[in-house]
Write a structure and sequence with these properties.
Chain lengths: 232, 86
Amino acid sequence: MLHAYCIRAAGDPPPDAALRGVDGLPVELREACGVGAWVSRPPAPPPPAPERLVAHDAVARAALRSATPLPVRFGTCFAGDAELERALCEGADGYRAALRRVAGRVEMGITLGWDAAAQRRALGGADADAPDLEIAQGPGRAYLERRRRASSLERALLERAEAHVVQVRRIMGDDLEESVVLLPAEGIAARMAHLVHRRALSDYRARVERLRPALGDVDVLLTGPWAPYSFT
Amino acid sequence: MDDETSRAPRELDDDADWELWESPDAPRSLAELVNRVLDRGVVITGDVTISVAGVDLVYLGLNAVLTSVSTARRTLGRRIDQPPLR
């Protein structure tokens, strides 16, 4: 059984002999068709416990130190070396193209957090369940009106989250490759990822510092460098 | 000008850049890590066994920073991928 951490270009440095991955297992390089993979050999597919997820990412970040890899989603396992090699060969052209795309760059994450309940109140959501609906309209129409109000509120919340993303883009500049996910209902206005050149991280960090005073009650969480999970 | 396609090892200019990483023990950073490792990254096709056994247990175990599985699935969110602007 092989558990894969990341894909590497041919000729990229192998893992350090002392590197340990999930469950403390050694990490080795396997190569086929001009691409490589860093893998461990567990006895069975490892269940995704928190410490294993951290260990999995730690291997991807170790690879990132020397050359940007393609991080593999946790839980990707192969019955043996032949199966891994077959999979690498089948996808080799795509992996090489993706490696060229991310070469020299790392992923940085900006998560915009907010109090979703407070945002709803600010958008006038307090009256979504107003008792006067039943009295004025009857139960059936009142139900539909509540559904309509809730739907309108969620749309307004999404629009507000999108507005924050636009604001971030304006402040951070338009020269960054990005990936954005909006999650306005769950306390996260947006989760953004940028692909940043390794030698531009200080400049990137300075740009993020300009975000915090500009976004008011939106919390700005900066994380990274990551392997390019959001750009594979 | 750096050759971005060069395969030579390339360290970051400043070790402090790696310290941008907030400790994975911090709840919010752990949530960011889990989101990436479980929901992003390359999915290798072919003769592969994808291990998802116990994923519910992971979410339950982390319910201090994550929602329930059903809510997480419902609210994976709308993804907007911005194409390169240059």
